[in-house]
Amino acid sequence: MVFNVELPHVGESVTEAVIGKWLKAPGDQIEKYDPLVEVITDKVNMDVPSPASGTITKIIAQEGETVLMGAVIAEMETADGEVSAAETSEPAASEASPSLSAGRIGTLVQGANVGPTGGEFVDTSLTSTKSTASTANLGDSVGSSSRQRGFSPVVTRLAAQHSVELSSLVGTGLGGRVTKKDVLAAVEAGGAGLVSASDQDVSGSEQVIDPTPIRRMIANHMVKSVMEIPHAWSAVEVDVTGMVAWHKANRSGFETRHGVRLTYLPITLAVVASSLKANPRLNSTWLDGKIVLKKAINVGVAVAAEEGLVVPVIHFAADSSIVELAGELDGVVMRARSGSMTLEDVQGGTFTLNNTGALGSIWGGAIINHPQAAILTTEAIVKRPVVVSDGETDSVVVRSMMNICLSFDHRIVDGAEASEFLQSVKSGLEAINLDSELE
C-alpha cells in the first residue's frame, strides 16, 4: 500500500515549516514512530516521526524547502491496512500528550527566538548583566530555489520576468504564500523586491553572510508584523523605589521559604497580568475584521538562554500568585538553558512582556508579536533625581525609576485605552513598598 506522508500540524499559529534534513532516503525501511525528517518551524526544531512502518519510496519536499502544514512531503510503501487515514497525520501539539511533545515532536530551537529582546530585570545603578539580543516571533522562510521554496510556477515565471526577488516578499495568500498579486504589487511599487545589478555587487572589503533558515524566518515575520499591524506607541515612567526596596529586603527569605529565585520579573508579571484582566482589549487579536478577546491571559516572557533568546509562555498568569509565577519562570529558565523546552512552553501566548532594560535600554518601541494586540517593554531601572511634592513644598530626591513602553495595534486599541493599561501597570508597581504582602 502506497500512501502520502504529510507534514503534521503542530499548533494553530504554525502554518508552515522548512525541511531541514531528511533522516531516511528512498529505499530505506523505517519503523513506526522512528524519526523521519528534521523540520524547522517558527516555534521549534523537531523530528517528525514516521506514521507507520514501511519503506520510503519517494521524497517530495526537498531539504531547504518551505512547505505548508498538512502538505505531502514523502511517499511510503506499507502492508495493506497498516495505515488508516487518521494515522497519516499527527494530532496538533495542543492535543498531544506532554511526553509526545517533549520526546517525538521535538525540542526548542536555541537562538530562534519567538519574541523580542529581553532577560531578567536589571538595576543599572547597582550592577550590569550580559544579555543576548534577538528578534520577535518567527515566520516563513525562502531560499535560492523558487520551486523548492513552494512558489507556484506562475509566481516564479512572473518574478523572473520582472526581476523580483521572491525571498524579499511577504505573502498574503494562505499560510503566507506569495501570490501573483504580491509580485505585481512589488513591481508596481517601483522597486520593492526588485533585483538590480548593483544589489549583487559586493566589494572585496565587505563580508556577505548567508542567513540561516531561522534568520530568514525571523526577518520575514518581522516584515509581516510591521506590514499587517498598524503600530502605535505610548510610554510612562514608573517610580519603582518601593519594589526595589521590597525585593532587597525579601529576596533571601523568599528563596529559602520557596526554593526559587526571586527577581523583579514575577512581581512585574503579576502586575501586568492583573492589568490585562482589567483591560481585556490589550489581551486580544485582530481576526478577519473582528476583535477576538482572549479569555486566558497567557503572557510570553523573554528569557536569555546560553545560545540565544527564547520567549516561553506563562499560561493563566492572572490566576497565579507571585510564588507560583516565580516557580514557573524558574522552571522555564532551566528548560531553556538545557534545551529541553516543549511546544507547550512556547504556544498560546496572548501578550508579550519584554525586558530591554537588561540590555541597558531606557526607552524603546518593540515590534508586536504577531498576531497579538500589544507588547510591553520594561526598561532599565536607573537611580536619578526626581522632584516630589508633599502638597506644600517641592524637594529633589533620588529614586529608582523605570520606563515602561507599550506598542499596540491601533486597529484594536486607541490611545486612551493604551494609557489606561499603562497607568494600571504603573499604579500596581508603585503601590509596592516594604509593608506589601506579596507572597
Features:
439 residues; alpha+beta; OB fold (Dihydrolipoamide Acetyltransferase, E2P); Chloramphenicol Acetyltransferase; 2 domains; seven-stranded mixed sheet; five-stranded antiparallel sheet; 24% strand
Structure overview:
- The chain has 439 residues and is an alpha+beta fold.
- It folds into two domains: 2-105, RNA polymerase II/Efflux pump adaptor protein, barrel-sandwich hybrid domain (OB fold (Dihydrolipoamide Acetyltransferase, E2P)); 220-430, Chloramphenicol acetyltransferase-like domain (Chloramphenicol Acetyltransferase, 2-Layer Sandwich), CATH 3.30.559.
- It is 26% helix and 24% strand.
- The protein has ten helices and 20 strands.
- The strands form five sheets. Strands 10, 13, 16, 17, 18, 19 and 20 form a seven-stranded mixed beta sheet that branches. It has a five-stranded antiparallel beta sheet with strand order 7-2-4-5-9. The chain has a four-stranded antiparallel beta sheet with strand order 1-8-6-3, with no helix packed on it.
- Helix 7 crosses helix 8 and helix 7 (264-278) crosses helix 10.
- The longest helix has 18 residues, at 241-258.
- It is globular.
- The model is unreliable at 84-120 and 122-148 (pLDDT under 50).
